[in-house]
Amino acid sequence: MAQTLSESPSPAPVYSRVLLKLSGEALMGDREYGTDPDRVHAIAAEVAAVHRLGVEVAIVVGGGNIYRGFAAAARGMDRATGDYMGMLATVLNALALQDALEKLGIATRVQSAITISEVAEPYIRRRAIRHLEKGRIVIFAAGTGNPFFTTDTAAALRAAELHAEVVLMAKNGVEGVYTADPAEDANAEFIPEITHKEPLTRGLQVMDSTAFALCMDNNLPIVVFNMAGGSNIGKIVSGERVGTLVRT
Fold first, then answer.
1. How many CA atoms are closer than 13 Å to the CA of 30, on its beta-carbon side?
2. Is 21 left (phi over 0), alpha (psi -120 to 50) or beta?
3. Whole-model pTM above 0.70?
4. 235: exposed, middle or buried (C-beta count within 10 Å: 0-12, 13-18, 19+)?
């Protein structure tokens, strides 16, 4: 069918392989903890739209939305034990996101950094790359598989291992990087572009210092953006400036 005047072709993506870091809170919606099915579906639809542009998408998912529900029970617990509980929470989120993506017809694989063979593949770098090359979305669960490391660090690590071109750091209700926490400081100013070193020297809470160091050492740009902004992932991969760009 001939293209109508009202239709316009989608811009060609400027990235061919991206790593999306999704916080557990992004899946929570307006709930106090847990996952909101409507929110999970909305995120899956946005990711699927980007995937259909021909962009290879890998995802690292956090577990804060689930861990928040048993944080009181974990109080006073050994740090390593609490971190392993958090890793299991990320597996639950990964499975929920996988289900939502596959209902949209997108082939998806979950790879876990801890062995849970009944529900997820073990993380194998070459297998993950092959999945991406075959047009599958890969969701990484259980962080790095080690306590004392955050899922931010897992995102930076997986991005470097997979030769992703950019880390997309999705925030829940925050447009990007600010000079201070905008929820606490009405005078906080939005920063459109910043270097990897500046958040560390200025104490800006974007991602943990280990993750920043990994991205800086591997010359990996980061885009910090609002996941609730509507189609922001598609805008970013199409070259539109959204959120804050962090680069060397």
1. 1
2. beta
3. yes
4. middle
Domains of the chain with CATH codes: 13-141 (3.40.1160.10), 171-248 (3.40.1160.10)
Going from the C-alpha of 12 to that of each of 52, 55, 58, 228, 233, the distances in angstroms are: 11, 10, 19, 23, 14
Rounded to whole angstroms, the Cα distance separating 227 from 233 reads: 8
> Phi and psi for 138 in degrees, rounded to 5?
-110, 125
Q: Look at 4 and 224; give whichever has higher pLDDT.
A: 224
Compute φ and ψ for 201, nearest 5 degrees: -75, -30
Instruction: Give yes or no for a contact between 155 and 211, defined as CB atoms under 8 angstroms apart.
Output: yes
Rounded-to-integer distance, Cα 107 and Cα 135, Å: 8
**Distance, CA of 178 to CA of 131 (rounded, Å):** 36
Token pair belonging to 209: 């210092």
Per-residue tokens: 164: 């992703």
Question: By C-alpha distance, which of 21, 28, 20 is closest to 65?
Answer: 28
Which one, of 82, 46, 45, 81, lies nearest residue 67 by Cα? 82
Q: Dihedral of the CA atoms 234, 238, 242, 245 (nearest 10)? A: 120
Backbone angles phi, psi at 153, to 5 degrees: -65, -40
Q: Distance between CA 35 and CA 29 in Å, rounded?
A: 7
Q: How far is residue 60's CA from residue 140's CA, in Å, rounded to a whole number? A: 5
pLDDT in tens, 25-54: 888 878 878 888 999 999 999 999 999 999
Tell me the per-residue pLDDT of 177-201, one tens digit each, with 9 for 90 and over: 998 888 888 889 999 999 988 888 8
Please give the DSSP secondary-structure letter assigned to residue 54: T
